[in-house]
Inverse folding.
């Protein structure tokens, strides 16, 4: 996985497991933002949080980059 800093354009190559450990709070913030957005759109489509979490991780790169507030974004998985 390649991540890039939005401010300095510094690139890092990091494994997915290390990314999950290092950016756990940012991932959680992105998921909460995604969850609130989706519930405001069409809450009837999700029967539980598991299906919402599945959809979040199905398009993880886009969701993390657009719903997260991290200084880093995912360039490529």
């Amino acid at each position: 996985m390649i991540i890039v800093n939005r401010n300095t354009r510094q690139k890092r190559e990091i494994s997915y497991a290390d990314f999950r450990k290092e950016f756990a709070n940012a991932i959680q913030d992105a998921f909460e933002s995604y969850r609130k957005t989706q519930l405001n759109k069409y809450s009837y489509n999700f029967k539980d949080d598991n299906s919402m979490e599945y959809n979040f991780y199905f398009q993880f790169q886009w969701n993390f980059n657009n719903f997260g507030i991290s200084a880093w974004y995912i360039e490529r998985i």
